[in-house]
Amino acid sequence: xxxxxxxxxxxxxxxxxxxxxxxxxxxxxxxxxxxxxxxxxxxxxxxxxxxxxxxxxxxxxxxxxxxxxxxxxxxxxxxxxxxxxxxxxxxxxxxxxxxxxxxxxxxxxxxxxxxxxxxxxxxxxxxxxxxxxxxxxxxxxxxxxxxxxxxxxxxxxxxxxxxxxxxxxxxxxxxxxxxxxxxxxxxxxxxxxxxxxxxxxxxxxxxxxxxxxxxxxxxxxxxxxxxxxxxxxxxxxxxxxxxxxxxxxxxxxxxxxxxxxxxxxxxxxxxxxxxxxxxxxxxxxxxxxxxxxxxxxxxxxxxxxxxxxxxxxxxxxxxxxxxxxxxxxxxxxxxxxxxxxxxxxxxxxxxxxxxxxxxxxxxxxxxxxxxxxxxxxxxxxxxxxxxxxxxxxxxxxxxxxxxxxxxxxxxxxxxxxxxxxxxxxxxxxxxxxxxxxxxxxxxxxxxxxxxxxxxxxxxxxxxxxxxxxxxxxxxxxxxxxxxx
Length: 484
Ligand code: ADP
Ligand code: GLC
Hints:
It is a single chain. The protein is an alpha/beta fold. It has 19 helices and 18 strands. The strands form three sheets. The chain has a nine-stranded mixed β-sheet, with helices on both faces. The radius of gyration is 23 Å and the shape is globular. Bound molecules: adenosine-5'-diphosphate and alpha-D-glucopyranose.
């Protein structure tokens, strides 16, 4: 078995800090690759909450100045697993979220904060910051995008680990003005189209995609899509130019956390053979959301409230959904205008539409365990995790046909139903007509209890564990290490 050491560099890490699926993936990856001879050490920013949550810390490296501020790298253990943390109070010791203040305004120094993170990651991976050098550095999303650049432009002769850049979301690229470049302490050589320069400014994700030895994204479908302007969002040319290094590896789900048979957040645990127990969870969801109890279809949404997630179209179909006898429980946080639109629609249908804003991990589990169908009307979706949790919990996914959603859900068309292969409902394009039609199909299918139960069971039998993808990542690391 190969013995490969990987430094995984991500701005989120479940359960210590999470705003979306990136945290789930960064948290699950070390255990997913471990059976294949990969020792993965996560490196994360020392946000205030993380520094508080961690117990004993060991000093690994001290910077008198990391891009202008004092900083330390410390080693700690979380859940028995070693992690490395960038303790840089000037950048990370503040109230609010990882990227924005409590009002949702991006931190003005985000460029510098995550440049410092990328630089420290490169120092660590190269063996310049206390720890032993790593074979590979695996960077996730724009926040880690400069790490491959710091390695590329390090002094010659230094150990140069291989690098992997994973794109979880093209919509966030980390773009900053030209005046920011001198603060990065990179050589002038890096200010070029081959380096970090992008449309006259500094592009973090662009730098990572352009300089990494391998590029991955989180589903084969999205790997195809980002070759086109609509999904590549400006980086499609670079992606096409480097497509021989690009692959799509679908995310898994962590069976220790998302397991309906053992989930403590549920009122009633269940398996595919005891689906009737879900009713108890359904009653609990209705109570939390102030919905009239009933046996009719209960739709759920668990989502960031953003344009990506198609929440504006959801607002449009609410009257249709209620008109068909459906009810909706929505848990989300994000855009204030979307929230206002949802609340207005909910106001028209008391007892039929319930909305909770904010972040509530336990409630999200209960909703998957009690909802009949989960709606995911995304405009684009690199992978998507909530449809995978839905599949595992018998909460049938009704999803837009895009990216990872299209890769992981089998539409209940006639052929798939006959072959007992269907696991959900897909629709496209994302607009009122097709989304409304998908909801009509879901309500009709739900009325046919035998057919609905088959779809639930088929979804629950699907394997979305990390087994396959963990192996695929490990094979990629091994190839890169061999060719070092
Ligand atoms: P994205 O990362 O684009 O937001 P994913 O589907 O990959 O989309 O991951 C979203 C993750 O965040 C899932 O684990 C989902 O359950 C969780 N989530 C999203 N919104 C909320 C919320 N308001 N409360 C609790 N969990 C949420
Ligand atoms: C991003 C994507 C989502 C994906 C997640 C984890 O946030 O929007 O589709 O599942 O990253 O890879």
